[in-house]
UniProtKB/TrEMBL annotation, chains A, B:
Pfam families in the record: TetR_C_7, TetR_N
Keyword Transmembrane helix attached: no
Protein name, per record: TetR/AcrR family transcriptional regulator
Residue stretches making up the HTH tetR-type domain: 6-66
InterPro entries: Homeodomain-like_sf, HTH-type_TetR-like_transc_reg, HTH_TetR, TetR_C_Proteobacteria
Amino acid sequence: MRTKSEARRSAILMAAGQVFHDQGFEGASMAQIAMSLGCSKATLYAYFESKEVLFYEVLMTAAGSQMRETFNSIENLSLPIHDALQILGEQIISLLYSEEVMAVRRLLLSAAGRKAGLGKACYEAGPAQFLEATSLLLKHYMDTGKLRQSDSRVAALHLRALLESEWIDLFLFSTMQGFDQAFCKETATRATDAFLAAYSPTQ
Amino acid sequence: MRTKSEARRSAILMAAGQVFHDQGFEGASMAQIAMSLGCSKATLYAYFESKEVLFYEVLMTAAGSQMRETFNSIENLSLPIHDALQILGEQIISLLYSEEVMAVRRLLLSAAGRKAGLGKACYEAGPAQFLEATSLLLKHYMDTGKLRQSDSRVAALHLRALLESEWIDLFLFSTMQGFDQAFCKETATRATDAFLAAYSPTQ
C-alpha cells in the first residue's frame, strides 16, 4: 500500500515532468511547478530539496520504469545470458548518453560540489537503484551457474564500466556529436563479450 | 631536436605551473603568467587558448612524466603481467582521483560545453596520450602471447574502465571523502583480475 506522502511525491514528479517538458530545465521554476499542483513552494521543497534534485528524479523515474521493463522482459523471456546482457547494455548506454541525462549529469557535477547532499540524493535516486537491480540479476546468474561466484556488486560495477568504456570520455570532454545507435550496439557487444569472458564459470 | 616553439611551450608550462602552485587555479591569471615569462598575453594565448587548457596541460605534463616512469619501469623490470598491470592501475587511479585532477575535470565538464574545442584540446593533452601508451603496452603483451589478440585500443579502454569502475560515481556525484590508498590497491587488484580473465589467451 502506498502512503499518502508517496502518492503526493508521485503527483509532484508527474507535474514537474510536464513543466520541465514544456519549459526546459532552465525555463522551469519551483514556483511554476508548485502552482501547477496547487500547492505551496514550501510543500514542494519538503519533498525535493532543489530544482536539480527534482529534475534528476523526474528523469530517473522515467528511466527507472524503462529499466524495470527491461529487467522484467529479461526474466520473462528467459533469454540466454549473452542476449540478456546485450539488451540491458544497449539500454544502459542509450539512457546514460542521451542528451537529457548528460545535461543533468553535467549540471550535477558543477552543482554537487557546492551543495552538500545534492550528489548523494541524486546518486540514491539513480545509480544506486540501478546497481542494486543489476547486482540481483548477476547474483541470479551466479546462483544458476551461468556466471562464476563472486561479489555481485563489484561484477555489476565492472559490467557498467565496460559498457561505458568507449563513451565516458566523449561525455567528460564534451566531444560527442549526437547519439550513434550503431556504435551503441557495437560497444555493448564488445563490453558484453569482455564481461562474459571475465565472469564465465571456469571450465 | 626540439623546435624553438616547443622550447617556448615548455617554458610556458613551467612558469604557469609555478604561478598555479603559488596562486591556485582561481587566483592565477593569464596576465600574471605572461608577466612571469616576460612575454605578452597575446603570445601566451597563441600557445594556449585559455587558462583552463593551460592548467590542464600543466597537470597532464606532470602526470605524463610520472606515467612515462611507470611505463619505463614496467619495461625495464620485465615484471610479470599481473604485477605490471597492478602497478599501472594504482597509478592511474591515484592520478585520476587526486583532488587536483578531479577539480579540473569538473571545471572542464562545465566549461567544455560552452567553449568549442576546449574539451577536444584537453582530451588530446591527457587521455588520448595515455590511451596510446596503454594500447602499445597491451599490444606488446598480445604479440608476446601474454594476452589474446584483439583490438588493443578497445582493450586499453576496457582496462581503464575497470580500474575506474568503483570510483567514477564518487567523482560524478561528488560523494568522495578523501583518497583512500587501501581502496585504491583493492580496486586495482579486482580490475586487473577481471581484465586478465577477459583478455588472457584461451587455454
